[in-house]
Amino acid sequence: MGYSYIQVETRGHVALITLDRPKALNALSSGLFEDLNRALDEIEANEEIRCTVLTGSAKAFAAGADIKEMQPHSSVTAYMTDLITPWERVSQTRKPIIAAVAGYALGGGCELAMMCDFIIAADTARFGQPEINLGTMPGAGGTQRLTRFVGKSKAMDMCLTGRMMDAEEAERSGLVSRVVPAGELVDTALEVAAKIASMSLPAVMMVKESVNRAYETTLAEGVRFERRLFHSTFGTEDQAEGMQAFIEKRSPNFRHS
Ligand code: DAK
């Protein structure tokens, strides 16, 4: 079955998901999330895919939740329909997912990018949590993830004033991992994803799980968790192959097992 609001392609062992509601600047509607979540389920189940890139258009990664769809809701219907909770699927993927952001990443769009494992930004990218302008507030992790990335002062500034941050400020603040010229964004993200996809998938997934644990536990518990995963890598064929290849001065041939 095809998709209405996204495009999905595969490039080798990498999936490229492109948000595709150009007339609404990729505003995040429930239909778009049904498509996105179904694609993520398929990617997670596909043994050939080892990394995903999530991108939008040159003008907008996503300009936020679909305001026109949200506007009629009351607090009761928002609660009863569990409005927008299915968004969290992105943050639950076990394989890595990179956000490649050009143009606007606002409100839910910024939150969606932050749910990915890291963000590569075009020099045209603009991040913001403008919900305050609508008389509401971030609802998909904006006050939580943004604060962890950029610190309290900048997160307060962004969420209370609704101002946008350009790519240079986003990199300086730790929100994005790197900034590239807009014309090179998707190719760069695909190259980075291909590099990750060339690694041992069990090791990649353990790294992802371990880094994410840093946000949810104390340092001592996190280090203990990391050590146990590290020990378990010695049970994989890929660890044996990786170290043997180093000693034999050749490239490893990972089998993802
Ligand atoms: N929703 C719906 N339509 C949108 C949209 C949005 N967020 N953003 C843009 N559009 C539509 C515009 O209405 C316009 O449609 P037409 O009038 O042509 O039919 C079309 O996209 C082009 O937009 P503009 O004409 O405004 O384009 P400009 O270049 O002039 O301006 C802009 C671009 C991005 C600065 C502007 O469109 C803008 O300010 N957009 C709204 C940005 C915003 O406020 N975003 C935050 C939305 S609130 C929750 C979880 C999450 C959330 C809520 C709850 N729960 C778990 C409960 C998240 C909330 C949000 O994201």
**Quick one: how many beta strands?**
10
Distance between the termini: 31 Å
Order of helices and strands: EEHEEHHEEHEEHHEHEHHHH
Q: What small ligands are held by the chains?
A: 4-(N,N-dimethylamino)cinnamoyl-COA
Mean pLDDT figure: 96
| Poorly predicted segments | none
Strand residue percentage: 15-25%
| Rg, Å, rounded | 19 Å
The percentage helix is: 40-55%
Give the strand order of the largest sheet, numbering strands 1, 2, ... along the chain.
1-2-3-5-7-10
| Structural class assignment | alpha/beta
Helical element count? Answer: 11
Shape: globular
Q: What summary fits the major beta sheet? A: 6 strands, mixed
Core attributes:
alpha/beta; 257 residues; 10 strands; globular; 4-stranded mixed beta sheet; binds 4-(N,N-dimethylamino)cinnamoyl-COA; 16% strand
Would you give an account of this structure?
- The chain is α/β, with parallel strands linked by helices and 257 residues long.
- The protein has eleven helices and ten strands.
- The protein has helices spanning 30-45, 67-70, 75-80, 108-115, 142-150, 152-161, 167-173, 185-197, 201-213, 219-233, 237-247; strands at 6-11, 14-19, 51-55, 60-62, 97-101, 104-106, 118-122, 126-128, 164-166, 178-180.
- The two termini are 31 Å apart.
- Bound molecules: 4-(N,N-dimethylamino)cinnamoyl-COA (DAK).
- 4-(N,N-dimethylamino)cinnamoyl-COA is lined by residues 24-25, 27, 63-68, 83-85, 104, 106-108, 130-131, 134, 139-140.
